[in-house]
Each structure stands twice: as C-alpha cells, then as structure tokens.
C-alpha cells in the first residue's frame, strides 16, 4: 500500500508518517519544502503548493490512501490565503483522488469548525456549524470539512477527524509560543470562571488517523462521517496550560485580567494591526479570548465505537515524555 500524507513534515503529519512507516507502508509526503526528518525515514517527498491543482495531482498519483493533514493554521492574515490553502487545497485533493482512483481520504479537521463562542461541554458530532465565525481558520476549515464529507461516494470513501489542541514532543506551534510569552511575562489568565478543556497528545492523534484509515472503505459505517478526537480527560484550562509550561521549563501563568478588559485589549491590538497593515498575528485577539473563556470538551463515544479509538497516552504520561524531550532539546542547544 502507498499512502500520501499532505503536510507530512509537520507536527501531526510526521507522527502519522512514522506510524505508517513502522507498519511497512510506502509513504509519500507533500509539502512546500524538503524535510530532513522525512528523508531519514526514507519517505518520498513531493514539493508544491496545496493550492496548485497540478502539483496536488502529481502527489496523489499512484497512492491508495490519502491523509490530508496540511492546512494554514493561525488566526490572522488575509482571508484569501486561508481559503486557498484550506478550501481550494482540499478541493484539489478531492479532485485528484477521483482522478487517480484513490478509494480512501482521511481529512484532518478541527473542533473550531463548530465553535460559536459559547461553552462546548460534552457535545457530540450532532452540534451544528455556527452561523458566524470569528476567524478565517475555523471558517475555511468548516468549508473544507463539508466538502470532504460531501465528496463521500461508492468510489471515494471519506472521513473527517476533529483533533483538539494537539501537544507533545515535536510541537513547533502551540507550546513554543506559549513558553516564549510566559518567559517574557506576557501571559495572563483571562476571566475567573473555571472552564474545562480537553486536549490531545500527538501520538493519540496520529493513532486515531490510522484507525480511521483501517476502518474506512466505500460504503463502510465510518464513510462520510466526522469524529471528535481527544484525550477524554477534561482539565481546567489554566491548570493544563501551566502543566504544559512546566514541561517546557517555563514559569506558570499567575496574573489575571478580566474577560471584558481582555476583549477590549484584543480589539485594540486587532485595530492597530489593521490600520498599520501589520501581517503578524496580534499578541491577543477576540477569538483567542473567547476560546480561553469557554469550556471545550467533547463526547468521543462515536470514535470509541466506530474507530476503536482509545487514548493510549494519558496526560500524565504525555507530560513526562514532553518534559524529557524538552530537557534534551535544551541540553543539546546549551
């Protein structure tokens, strides 16, 4: 079997690639640049823009299954950039799968596609898409998810997974930014209410993707469906953030700011960035404030039942692995 992993050199993509290689699967990665980690694994690499239909078609050709992980993350920047990467790119993947008779497509979505600004406490896959999105990322991921699910057919079986707040060794996005801001004294607790979030260790996220691929086939029970994936261990938001910061060798967040003041500050940062046409993400946005002030934990019974998903790495074990990895990295750089 030959598998294509878009974004194969990224955090989650690389974890999926490693599992596939251990299974003896022939793997091809598709991304913008060459990744030494993929070369070391003996993975074939195709470089290109996910928004380029011809480049995507060349990458898909000859593959039996596609894991579409690549996306434009973040919450700031022109809508056109998010649409090209997340929507047009996904449309290109679907067209290429049909063109080259690929029978299975596993799409990496996000729980943010159904976030409407309120608490999400134990919700399942029946929760609807919101009528309004506060950021381009969730809006374009929702459009892409709907396209993938709508593309399910007797010829191409599709499934979408919604992993929530992935963390662990190899993270180049979430934890490094948190740690840098904590060390600079720029982090504040927002609000005083105790809100719970569920997260996901990267190894559990990768395993969920392979489980979905194992059970996916045209007209199978999982075809055309979407699944929340998490640790199934809801933890108070700032407790989890501080545990991650501790593993990274960064100080905990202790000072706080009221929610209404945080929203005002975020609005100010956003306005300043728009007026000055600053392309960098503001230090705080209203979308982030709402995320940090609401509960986010999910009912994953469907994933347990249909995919056979069981979180193998607990939060405690994952934090131990993360701390050891971060300590090793610090020693190597010292």
Number of helices: 12
- The Cα radius of gyration reads 20 Å
- Morphology call: globular
What string, H for helix and E for strand, traces the elements in order?
A: EHEHEHEHEEHEEHEEEHEEHEHHEHH
Beta percentage is 15-25%
Largest sheet composition:
7 strands, parallel
Helix content: 40-55%
Indicate the CATH architecture of the domain at 2-172 and 198-234 and 297-315: 3-Layer(aba) Sandwich
CATH domain class name of the domain at 2-172 and 198-234 and 297-315: Alpha Beta
Please tell me about this protein's structure.
- This protein is an alpha/beta fold and 334 residues long.
- It has a domain at 2-172 and 198-234 and 297-315: NAD(P)-binding Rossmann-like Domain (Rossmann fold), CATH 3.40.50.
- The protein is 44% helix and 16% strand.
- Helix 4 links the parallel strand 4 and strand 5.
- Helix 1 (11-22) crosses helix 7 and helix 8 packs parallel to helix 12 (315-333).
- The longest helix is centred in the first third of the chain and has 21 residues, at 79-99.
- The mean pLDDT is 92.
Tags for this model:
Rossmann fold, seven-stranded parallel β-sheet, alpha/beta, 334 residues, globular
List the helices and strands and how they pair.
Elements: E1 2-6, H1 11-22, E2 26-31, H2 36-40, E3 44-47, H3 53-60, E4 65-68, H4 79-99, E5 104-108, E6 120-123, H5 136-150, E7 157-163, E8 166-167, H6 174-183, E9 189-190, E10 196-197, E11 200-201, H7 202-215, E12 225-229, E13 235-236, H8 237-247, E14 256-257, H9 259-276, H10 286-292, E15 296-298, H11 301-307, H12 315-333
Parallel strand pairs: 1-2, 1-4, 2-3, 4-5, 5-7, 6-15, 7-12, 8-11, 9-14
Antiparallel strand pairs: 10-13
Helix pairs in contact: 1-7, 3-4, 4-5, 8-12
């Amino acid at each position: 079997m030959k598998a294509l992993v878009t974004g194969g050199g990224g955090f989650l993509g690389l974890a999926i690639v490693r599992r596939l290689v251990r299974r003896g699967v022939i793997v091809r990665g598709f991304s913008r640049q060459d990744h030494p980690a993929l070369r070391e694994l003996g993975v074939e690499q195709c470089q290109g823009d996910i928004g380029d239909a011809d480049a995507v078609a060349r990458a898909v050709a000859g593959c039996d299954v596609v894991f579409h992980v690549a996306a434009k993350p973040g919450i700031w920047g022109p809508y056109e950039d998010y649409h090209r990467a997340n929507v047009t790119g996904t449309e290109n993947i679907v067209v290429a799968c049909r063109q080259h008779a690929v029978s299975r497509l596993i799409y990496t979505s996000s729980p943010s596609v159904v976030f409407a600004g309120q608490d999400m406490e134990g919700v399942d896959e029946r929760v609807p898409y919101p009528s309004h999105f506060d950021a381009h990322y969730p809006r374009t991921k929702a459009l892409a998810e709907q396209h993938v699910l709508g593309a399910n057919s007797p010829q191409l079986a599709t499934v979408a997974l919604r992993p929530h707040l992935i963390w662990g060794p190899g993270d180049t996005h979430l934890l490094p930014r948190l740690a840098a801001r904590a060390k600079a004294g720029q982090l504040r607790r927002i609000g005083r209410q105790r809100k719970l979030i569920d997260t996901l260790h990267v190894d559990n996220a990768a395993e969920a993707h392979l489980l979905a691929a194992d059970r996916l086939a045209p007209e199978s029970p999982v075809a055309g469906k979407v699944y929340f994936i998490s640790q199934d261990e809801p933890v108070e938001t700032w407790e989890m953030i501080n545990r991650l910061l501790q593993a990274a060798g960064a100080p905990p967040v202790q000072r706080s700011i009221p929610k209404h003041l945080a929203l005002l500050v975020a609005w100010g940062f956003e306005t300043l960035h728009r007026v000055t046409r600053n392309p960098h993400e503001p230090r705080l946005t209203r979308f982030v404030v709402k995320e940090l002030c609401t509960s986010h934990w999910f009912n994953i019974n469907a994933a347990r039942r249909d995919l056979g998903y069981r979180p193998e790495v607990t939060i405690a074990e994952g934090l131990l692995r993360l701390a050891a990895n971060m300590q090793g990295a610090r020693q190597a750089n010292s």
